């Protein structure tokens, strides 16, 4: 009987002394489930008699401009090529955005998205093409690189 207890305790020790993977430091992200659509039911409204309502202070909500709100569509990865002065200007904006109170997402991508959005609001695609064509004619013939239209 004593041997069986010793064997059982040894097995328990072996089980407890085995190596186990530690829990993850950063748990896996869980995707939020979409809220179900509001369902309108044609049910008779029940009359409820209640105490008079007290005025409740509503929390102050700052209006968020469309440029600051989250984009509705998923973002698509893209590559752009800039000259040195434009690149430095975008870097200055990003630094100022990090220093601002409250901090603002002023990354290069955010600035380019804002610029494209403003361009879409103010010009048609044909106007953009005409502007680019006019700028291409101003480039001297001995410019280095391929001809840009």
Determine the mean pLDDT. Answer: 73
Query: Which structural category fits the helices and strands?
Result: mainly alpha
Annotation, overall tally of beta strands: 0
Helix count equals 4
**How far apart lie the N and C ends?**
94 Å
Order of helices and strands: HHHH
Helix content: 40-55%
Radius of gyration from CA coordinates: 32 Å
Indicate the low-confidence ranges by residue numbers: 39-64
Q: What composes the largest sheet?
A: none
Query: Which of globular, elongated, flat, extended, rod-shaped describes the shape?
Result: elongated
Percentage of residues in strands: under 5%
Structural key phrases:
elongated; mainly alpha; 149 residues; 0% strand
Explain how this protein is built.
- By secondary structure, this protein is an all-alpha fold.
- It has a domain of 58 residues.
- Helices cover 40% and strands 0% of the residues.
- It contains four helices and no strands.
- The longest helix has 16 residues.
- The chain is elongated, with a radius of gyration of 32 Å.
- About 17% of the residues have low confidence.
Helix and strand arrangement:
Layout (H helix, E strand, L loop, with lengths): L1 H16 L66 H16 L8 H15 L2 H13 L12
Write a compact overview of the structure shown.
The protein is an all-alpha fold.
